[in-house]
Amino acid sequence: MPTAAEMEAAAPPWWLLALEGRAVFEWGAWWLSKPWFQHAPRGNAHPVLVLPGLIAGDPSTWPLRRFLGELGYHARPWEEGINRGPQPGLQERLLRRIEALADEHGEQVSLVGWSLGGLMARALAWHRPELVRTVITLGSPLSALPGQTNAARVFRLASGLDPEDPDLRRLLGGDPQVPLTSILSRTDGVVHWRASLAPQGERCESIEVPASHLGLGVNPLALYAIADRLAQDPALWQPFEHSGWRRLVFRNPQLERLFGG
Questions:
Q1: Record's InterPro entries (predicted)?
Q2: Any idea what the CATH number is for the domain that residue 108 is in?
């Protein structure tokens, strides 16, 4: 259940939405940061399924998948074309794909979802937690409250679904019993950052980075945080470490939730 503060949050203001064009510079930063990526944390070579955002497809997640591939992960696209929301049969196909990846590699599958893709990743993990190692979301409206995003109208047009339909919220499921990391930005122009706060739980966390919504999937700091989380052994899970140099570029919005920030 969302907190009172999250319920009160409105969609990002128009000027933040207008600033989403800065994502172009984040895509450029992805190329410039490639030498730095070699120093990102590395884990075991388990499979990772990457889900795109609303009205986006696999080309949008190619930089993220290439980054993960260079770290040794078996990063896979979702192979479902443009994401138009939870269309009939989609969830069942994705669950079968996760099962096939787990069987192929003999490992649980990590799910990384951008925006709407993150909501769908959480739902998949909720349905089959035994197949999922961890869930990482990027600017995803985890509260599932349409009033906290500027994309509700686009979702309605693309999916043919009403974002306020209770049946849709039930389809998105609850919070899975696997580690969940929400990477969010206070300057997100599409989804209010409070809507992206991870639920309070033993293995749930939020990491704040300076980014646009449309650039989260290529933002070098977001990618570093993804690598750090994927490198963990879920059995020895610890929250993201904000000490040292990380304190300069990563914020912990959970603390602000506790103190009403």
A1: AB_hydrolase_fold, PGAP1-ab_dom-like
A2: 3.40.50.1820
